Amino acid sequence: MTVYFLCVVLLTMGLYCLVAKKNIVKKVIGLIIMEYAVNLYLIIIGYKRGGVAPVIERGMNPAALERFVDPLPQALVLTSIVIGLGVMALMVAMCLRLYEKHGTFDMSQISKLRG
Amino acid sequence: MNAVPLFVAIPLGAAFLIPLFGLWWKKSGEVLATLSTLVLAVMAISSIGAPAVTHHMGGWAPPVGIALVSDGLAILLLIAVNVIGFLCLVYSLKYMQVYSGLPKYYSLFMLMVAGMNGVVVSGDLFNLYVFLEIASIASYALVAFGVEADELEAGFKYLVLGSVASVMILFAVGTVYAVTGTLNMADAAREISTRFGGPEMNPALLLAAALFLMGFSLKAALVPFHAWLPDAHPSAPAPISAMLSGVVIKSLGVYAICRVFFHVFGFMPGVTSSVILANIMIWFSVLSIVFGGLLAVGQWDLKRLLAYSSVGQIGYVMLGIGVGARVLATGGPRSLAGLAILGGLFHLLNHAAFKSLLFLASGAIQQATGTRDMKQMGGLKERMPITAMTTNIAALSIAGVPPFAGFWSKLIIIFAAVKAGLLVVSFIAIAMAFVTLVYYVKLQREVLFGTVRGAVENAREVPALMYVPLIILAIFCVGFGLLYPVLGYRILEPARDALLNGAEYIKLVLG
Question: B140 — contact with chain A (CB < 8 Å)?
Fold first, then answer.
């Protein structure tokens, strides 16, 4: 239970960083922290103490099946890391373009649109 | 062999091939993208009235493998996405010529279509998330495609908020997996209804439901999650604004809410948390109707006015869906729930037609006059008769003037809300329908009619490639209303039945 709670704390920290920081690079870092909090959460869902890799061999003791870890969350995390990489690349590219236009990373100086 | 995987495979393949061929063939984007969207539009139209089918990817049966499901609801969205996509692409051929890097534009466009089609046909929660991200990343890049200061700022805002939504959705997907042990939507729905079918929902599932609602509402730009939309939609090139307002917020937001809440969680009569969820949906939609409508009135930037109006109109769509959900959750008559849902889906289809028309027309006006400021326009009817005429039809339809389609869908939604006993909500909806009329009358007076003045003096009608999509969409705006008894029911009623009968969906996917 505590680990799940810590995941949520990490998520909230990322969200706080995203909302409170004015520097857009720090906002990007906040978003990455949020993404990794969720990745961690997915990994913990599939965690099993003393688990082994889920590979079935011929003549295997059925009791050993009990010790297999669930491979699905790990596959999900791999996919989500790749997606996170794509989002991060786009975000950093936009930050650089914004810096070229305005000469600053400060959102309060960049912001002209009213929302 | 059924055609469902092709809805994802064709645009994905085109998105890959366009930049590749673009290296030595300048027109690769135009040719390949037009061909593939044309094929997709024809496939979508030909699937009207087709029976619901499930495709097992790689031959693996559903709980293990990934299923692609095309039922009535999916077909409705496929038609909207692919037909609007084709028309916007035809419009882009001329409109986008002033931009550079066109193969990238067409590649991103096809990626966005692939993502939306994927979200619509996916029968698997994680797959839905992946396709949602494909469509979202493509649209972030497309919003910032102009790489000027405003576009970049709007794109960055959209990216940050959209990514927060995606993180919430992934969190929810993980939670559903942790509780039910499956990612297949039908399998998860069966687990939830058999194991947690009591008066209270499992707290972990309640958390997942809340996160899903927040994530998808952000993608759908419902108030209070709408802050990115009025910046992002006007900053994008006009065909992309039309796609974003016309179909992206619907397929990533409204459709996903419908699918997840009606089919995975289900609105079971007598379940307290279902009633609360339905009430939250209604509150979000009422807030959207009020804030979107009121903020639109004060806008002088043509595209910002349209963007705020999108917030308001998506509120009407969600109001229909939310009233249907509430009637189901409180154990009311199913026919009434069906009526409310039908109204919502009808308005979704209408909004796709008239809002993409209005955004395409705003692009034509911007290109002809060089401005989006309504104060500098007037008498457009004299200089650009076709654009002005089609804009007028769309404005009348969205404002809810009787023979046009927008009137019927709003009437059904409000009628269902009254019948469901939500008198205050329906009163607000009626009052705000008049406000909608107010800001479209403003648009007509300031832009279309009156004496020719300001930037309109030197405007000329746009080329045929740009106004033909406008005419086709205008025909839809009139036709959806008048042809409902002939054609509309074949698209809308299967979609309504699909939403009403969650058990049918489980049977369809798991066999």
Answer: yes
